[in-house]
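Submission checklist for the structure archive. All mandatory fields must be present; incomplete records are returned to the submitter.

[x] Identifier: FadR family transcriptional regulator
[x] Organism: Paenibacillus rhizovicinus
[x] Residue count: 225
[x] Sequence attached
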Amino acid sequence: MPKIQKILVHEQVSQEIQNYIQEKELSEGDKLPSVEEMTQMFGVGRSSLREALRYLEAMDIIQVENGKGIFVRDVNTFRFMGKVKVEQERAFLLHTLEVRRALEGQAVRLASKRINDKQIAEVEACLAEYRERKEAGKDTSQIDLAFHRYIIKAAGNPVLETVLDSFSGLYEKFFNDPLGDKQLFDETYPMHITMFDAIRIHDTENAMEEFYKMMDCLEAKIKSV
């Protein structure tokens, strides 16, 4: 079962305020809604909102002037922060990908030797749903994640599965809006099929070849954003 990552309310609110600044195309000196208005906008308490404002003020994104209001302080800082966030996420995904190559690669290798008929049927059903969702233009992130978990399960190594499960909070970053684009890795869909075709007939060499093609494609997409 995936672990739920804890996100503090003030962190969510600070992100929503930044989104508001960006969406409204506010400039330095522009006034933000009042505290009362923002508590209604974001559906949070005053304490959480004030904590978010303190955080944004410390980052030089806003300036709170008592008796006057809340103002955008430095748009350049805000844009820089957004750029830094993208660069940090890109670096994180690339580092995580290195671990995926090692751990999930071993899972693919073992699955190609140990997968049984029941597991083959499960993956086939998963891929069928994947295809339906993709053709309908729906979000495929969670069914993509499910596919990889089925392969890990098919490896038949409980220690490896436990290690990957403990890694799942980080692993899921690949499937939850990576770099702000849920369709970022859609090009890897055909590789899921070819990799599974090799696993199903216990062709380890081709299964690994397709797995590494997938990892190479992921790496290229991350670097291109």
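[x] Structure attached
Curator remark: Confidence is low (pLDDT under 50) at residues 1-6. Residues 9-73 form a domain with the Arc Repressor Mutant, subunit A fold (CATH 1.10.10.10).
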